Amino acid sequence: MAASRQPGVEPVFGGAGIDAGETDGIEAEFRAPAPYVILQFRRKFSIAMHAEHLTLALPDEAATLALGAALAANLRPGLVLWLEGDLGAGKTTLVRGLLRAAGETGPVKSPTYTLVEVHVVSGLHFYHFDFYRFNQAEEYLDAGLDEYFSGNGICLVEWPDKAAPYLPAAAMRIELLVGSGADAAGRTARLTAVSEKGRTCLAGVRSSSLPPPA
After folding, report:
1. Half-sphere exposure of 55 toward its Cβ, with a 13 Å CA cutoff?
2. pTM of the model
3. Is the omega angle on the peptide bond into residue 160 within 30 degrees of 0, that is, cis?
4. What homologous superfamily does CATH list for 37-206?
């Protein structure tokens, strides 16, 4: 989808029939100092949880897409997500799962050359950024991208480190790590909430029962 600028106020995410699933019975907040709790989501997802952190083992692409769907069910206007990880770690796959669950039926591709792809679905504006090609952080300022972060759209940012320190702060950081050895096909996702909006989103994600791949 070609990039276009869509300023304005969007309503609260209405969803596209996304079911957050059954709660896992674990309270959203732990009293400090709380130990990490290991859960199994239908034998496919191994999770380590703490108050503002969640680590999730993603054994395959379907699991990454399912995590994106779980995120979509807990988004609110104005949320900024930083997506971190090496090339091939699954950042765009995660965004694809999120947008598909939100109701996007068109193509979802990495905006490596366009810098931003705009998706208008379920009454919300999603702004998908990729700053991989930046040689200097000042290129973010030169591109005039600040206005995308000043409204109620949801900003999904790949390679945020390339635009630091000018990029607005994240509500949640999601780091994707590629496996090694026998687990080379798998990924690990580390979710860290760094604002109240991020904590609310994270609480919803970790109370979700993620479905196994079909």
Report:
1. 7
2. 0.73
3. no
4. P-loop containing nucleotide triphosphate hydrolases (3.40.50.300)
Q: Residue 174 pairs with which residues in a beta bridge?
A: 83, 191
Which residues have a Cβ under 8 Å from the Cβ of 147 and sit 6 or more positions away?
A: 5, 7
Using alpha carbons, list the distances in angstroms from residue 142 to 73, 149, 170.
Answer: 34, 15, 21
Looking at the chain, the whole-number percentage of residues with pLDDT higher than 90 is 60
Dihedral of the alpha carbons of 51, 159, 90, 50, in degrees to the nearest 10: -10
pLDDT in tens, 129-153: 999 999 999 999 999 999 999 989 9
Residue 128 · residue 95 · CB < 8 Å: yes
Phi, psi for residue 203 in degrees, rounded to 5: -60, -40
Whether 114 contacts 3, CB under 8 Å: yes
